[in-house]
Structure formats: C-alpha cells, structure tokens
C-alpha cells in the first residue's frame, strides 16, 4: 500500500480501520432490516438511531433533522429539486464555482422552467454578502452556496451569506461535501437551512451521505417507496454504512484541530516549496481562507494530464483541472471562474492532503515534481516559443 | 485507461526535439484547446531521413506524436502522406474515444510539415492541408 503517495483526498478518502471495525457487525451479524419486527432488528434500529444522533451532534443539528442518502449528489438533488418542486418553480441563486452536482441540477431545473443566477466569484474564489443581496429577486426560492470549494479549497463566508438569505426569508442550502469533517460546523449558529454531506470525503465508505434539513422545512421525497427516513427518502436503511459514517465523523470532529494543524504545516511547505522551485507557477485560491489540506497551482507551459501521468509513474496520486481530465474541451470551470485563461488552467495541479500524509511525503513531492515539470516543458513547443519570445527564461 | 504502448511512448517518447535547419516544419492544434504538436522533417531525395517533434498536451498527444515520428521516419513523402490517424492509433494498440483527436492531430502535423516542405521547394501542394485547430475543436 505504501509504494504510492496518495494526495487526492478531496476526491475520496480511505475507509479508516476504526470505521470498518464499527461497520462489520452490521454486515455479518446484525443484518436485520431496520423495519422488521424481530428482536435482532431492534439492534439495527438502535444503531441507526445512535448514528443519527451522533451525526446531528457533530454539526449542531437535531436528530430528526438528518436524512440519510446515498451520496452528496443525492443530497444536493433532494434539496434543490425538493424546494423548487414545492415552490412550483421560481428563481435559484448559486455560484459559478459549485460542484457539478449543483450546477447540472440547476441546469436541469432551468430546463424545467426555473430561472437561475450564478454569482461570479472573485480571483480568490469568494462570494460577498453584497453580491448575494443584489441578486435576490421576489421570485428567489433557494440560495445554494458551497461551504468549501473542491478544487481550490476556498472557504465561503457561509454565516454572512446565510444571514442575507434569512433576512429575505429565502431558504439557504450549502453543499458542504468538502467541509464536513474538515471544518467546524454548527448549522444553527451559521443559520443554515439545508446542508449536504458525503461520507467518503471523511473516512467513511463511498455510497453514503446525508442531508440536514432544518425542522419546519418540508421537502417532498425524491425517492418514494417504503416510507423510510420518515417518508422523506425511501429505501432500506444502509445500516453498516450509516454506522460507518457516524463513526468516521466522530473521529474526524474529535481530531479536527490536531489534524488540521498538521495538514496546514504540510500544505504551507508544499505551497512555498513548489512556488520557489518551479518558475512560472501560481497558487490558485486564497492563501488564508482555504481548507487545510488543499494545494492548487497552475504550472504554465505544460498540460495537466501529462503531469498527472508522470506523477503517477513516480508513485504520486494527484489531480488536475485540465480539459483532458475534465473529459471536455474546456478546463475546470472553477479555474476559469477565478480568472485564469484556458492556457493557464490546463496546467493546473491539485494536491489534497489527508490523515495519512507525512512530511516525508511532502519531501518526496517537492523532490519529484520540479524535474517532471522541466521534462514536460523541454518537450513543449509552447515553452520553446515563450523562451524565443522572451516571455520565459530557460533554467 | 491507456494501453501499455501508449504509456511506453509517453514515458519514453521517441524523437523528441527540434531539427536545426529542418526542411519542413508543421504545427497544429492550439494552446486554448490543450494540445499543440510541432513536427520537424529532414528530407533527402523525397525520403524523410529524420523526424522530430515537440508537443504540449496530454499523455495521448505526446504518445501519438512519438508514434507518428516512428511511422514516417525512413519513408518516402508519398508513403508519409498515406499515414492516417487510424494507423497511429493501431500502432499504439488503441486510444480511449476521447483521445482519438490526438491521433488526428498527429496525422495533421505530419501533413502540415510536408506542406511546409512543398512550399519551400516550390512544389504544388496536391493534398489537403489541415487548419490549425481542425482536430481538437471539431472532433468532440
């Protein structure tokens, strides 16, 4: 396992051993359907109840405000589609740096007759309360703004933005998939009406998530059937995964300060080290308002996918926002939204640190990355042209 | 996602570099789309005696460039003009569907370099010369 360095934690994380251990009895021994009448189902029912209470406590919510879902995308769909269905259409406000789980859902709703405003972020990736205020119309039914960006790690001023929504009596939803388990969250203090989360971003398995819905908000079910989750989301409770997600969040929250302090030190060394050793390179996102494990840089004159392949050949798993990795002609919408040109965005590299990473990993990345960049530049006609034009200096 | 051959040509690209005083130079693609290929040809008696490339782009762009240089080296101009993107792909044991345009770019880069050579020696260009971004912007 340790013959590669995994630094793509914003994509997904490893299931923690303690989590797997907590889950196992519900896969092997206590497999009873929560809805059944026999006594072994009392155990599963209690496990789901405890997990719900634990997750609610982790974000300052009440037990009955947590709905278990299959993933962050489902949570986002449930919130947006639910509110717009209930309202019978209307106006949605979101941002131009949301995850596709939000953007594509809003696009689908627009096709169905809703209208939408995409607030443009500044060069750091931030939205201001004034911007939000100015975008509100009498038709606005929901505001959905992510808590932390998955690519550049920028943390939005959610509490201030939610206050604007509240002053207008508009529902405020946040896609907190990159934030839950990584940032302190209290939905009541922050004034959040709905919050989406995904287990596999904080040490639980893939295939489990939740949606927090403030008491008093009725959301029609997206998935209908057996009446689970108090009629809000049908489907037999995924007991083991629910238990696993609760355990993972407990661990993440209890270790948050310690983990973040460690990650922050590594992140800062990585950012400084990369910017010092690689010329024509820039940091994307805000240096301060940033999740602890996120590094995102644009390296000019090379293309991101080639860079990832070379890193992979050297045992480093990272990610990029280049067009080749987005599967389209355009590079990441987030990088374009913060004002990068296509050319600069194609050369982006995201390193997202997690739990298991060490300073030795940082050393290895800092030793491995610069020669790879140089090799690709030496192969690149763009680099050659830049030198000839005096835009860049060979090294 | 990539075949072993693509990986090999990406990791150990053949014929990377420039040819000083090249007889033909062809550049296709554009940086906005994320791929640029530049081919250099050395031609003697209508035979491509040397071929080098520089590529900005993804793994497939680099691998197809490398393979294309291998396929035309030592060939006559007429043989090189017959090179298709399919032949480049087959020689690499295939490409993922989203990367097919890279092989088209490789074919076009060779043709662009040959057109440049024809222009230099004043020969009439009797084949289709690709535009700068034909492959990358229209193949999706």
Question: Would you write up a description of this structure?
Answer:
- The complex is a heterodimer of chains A (395) and B (140).
- Chain A is built from 15 helices and twelve strands.
- Chain A is an alpha/beta fold.
- Chain A folds into two domains: 17-254, Type I PLP-dependent aspartate aminotransferase-like (Major domain) (Aspartate Aminotransferase, domain 2, 3-Layer(aba) Sandwich); 256-380, Aspartate Aminotransferase, domain 1 (Alpha-Beta Complex).
- In chain A, helix 4 (100-111) links the parallel strand 3 (91-95) and strand 4 (115-119).
- The longest helix of chain A has 22 residues, at 256-277.
- Chain A is globular, with a radius of gyration of 22 Å.
- Chain A starts with a strand and ends in a 7-residue tail after the last helix.
- The mean pLDDT of chain A is 96.
- Chain B has 140 residues and is an alpha+beta fold.
- Chain B contains six helices and three strands.
- Chain B has helices spanning 4-11, 59-72, 77-81, 85-91, 100-121, 134-138; strands at residues 24-30, 35-44, 47-56.
- Chain B has a three-stranded antiparallel β-sheet.
- Chain B starts with a helix and ends with a helix.
- Chains A and B meet through helix 10, helix 13 and helix 15 of A and helix 1, strand 2, strand 3 and helix 2 of B.
Considering the chains and any ligands shown, give keywords for the structure:
heterodimer; A: 395 residues; Aspartate Aminotransferase, domain 2; Aspartate Aminotransferase, domain 1; 2 domains; 3-stranded antiparallel beta sheet; 12 strands; 13% strand; globular; B: alpha+beta; 6 helices
- Choose one word for the global shape of chain B: globular
SS summary, helix count of chain B: 6
Averaged pLDDT of chain A: 96
Number of domains of chain B: 1
Mean pLDDT of chain B: 92
Instruction: Kindly report the name of the CATH homologous superfamily of the largest domain in chain A.
Output: Type I PLP-dependent aspartate aminotransferase-like (Major domain)
Classified by CATH, the class of the largest domain in chain A is: Alpha Beta
């Amino acid at each position: 396992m340790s013959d590669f360095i995994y630094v793509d934690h914003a994509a997904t994380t490893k299931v923690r051993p303690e989590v797997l251990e907590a889950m196992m009895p519900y896969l092997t021994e206590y497999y009873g359907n929560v809805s059944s009448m026999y006594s072994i189902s009392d155990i599963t029912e209690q496990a789901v109840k405890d997990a719900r209470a634990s997750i609610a406590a982790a974000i300052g919510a009440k037990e009955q405000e947590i709905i278990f879902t299959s993933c962050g995308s489902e949570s986002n769909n449930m919130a947006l589609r639910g509110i717009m269905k209930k309202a019978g259409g209307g106006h949605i406000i979101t941002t131009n740096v949301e995850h596709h789980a939000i953007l594509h859902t809003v696009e689908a709703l627009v096709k169905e007759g809703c209208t939408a405003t995409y607030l443009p972020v500044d060069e750091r990736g931030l939205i201001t309360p004034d911007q939000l205020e100015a975008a509100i119309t009498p038709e606005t039914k929901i505001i959905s703004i992510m808590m932390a960006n998955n690519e550049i790690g920028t943390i939005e001023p959610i509490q201030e933005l939610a206050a604007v929504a509240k002053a207008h009596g508009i529902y405020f939803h946040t896609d907190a998939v990159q934030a839950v388990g990584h940032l302190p969250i209290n939905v009541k203090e922050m004034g959040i009406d709905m919050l989406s989360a995904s287990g596999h971003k904080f040490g639980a398995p893939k295939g489990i998530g939740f949606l927090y819905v403030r008491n008093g908000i009725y959301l029609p079910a997206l998935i209908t059937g057996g009446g689970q989750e108090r009629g809000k989301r049908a489907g037999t409770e995924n007991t083991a995964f629910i238990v696993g997600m609760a355990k993972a969040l407990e661990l993440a929250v209890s270790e948050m300060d310690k983990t973040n302090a460690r990650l922050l030190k590594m992140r800062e060394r990585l950012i400084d080290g990369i910017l010092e050793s690689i010329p024509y390179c820039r940091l994307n996102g805000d240096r301060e308002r940033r999740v602890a494990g996120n590094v995102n840089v644009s390296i000019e004159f090379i293309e991101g996918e080639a860079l990832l392949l070379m890193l992979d050949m050297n045992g480093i798993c990272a990610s990029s926002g280049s067009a080749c990795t987005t599967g389209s002609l355009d590079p990441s919408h987030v990088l374009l939204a913060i004002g990068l040109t296509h050319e600069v965005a194609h050369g982006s590299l995201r390193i997202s640190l997690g739990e298991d990473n060490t300073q030795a990993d940082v050393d290895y990345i800092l030793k491995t990355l610069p020669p790879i960049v140089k090799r690709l530049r030496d192969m690149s006609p763009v680099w050659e042209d830049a030198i000839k034009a005096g835009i860049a200096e060979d090294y | 996602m990539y075949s072993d051959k693509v990986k090999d040509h990406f990791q150990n690209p053949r014929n990377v570099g420039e040819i000083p005083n090249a007889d033909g130079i062809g550049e296709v693609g554009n940086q906005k789309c994320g791929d640029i290929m530049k081919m250099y040809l050395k031609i003697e008696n209508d035979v491509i005696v040397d071929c080098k490339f520089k590529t900005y782009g993804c793994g497939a762009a680099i691998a197809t460039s490398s393979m294309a240089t291998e396929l035309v080296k030592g060939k006559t101009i007429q043989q090189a003009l017959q090179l298709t993107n399919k032949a480049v792909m087959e020689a690499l044991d295939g490409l993922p569907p989203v990367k097919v345009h890279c092989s088209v770019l490789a074919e076009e880069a060779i043709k662009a370099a040959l057109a440049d050579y024809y222009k230099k020696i004043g020969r009439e260009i009797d084949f289709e010369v690709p535009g700068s971004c034909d492959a990358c912007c229209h193949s999706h």
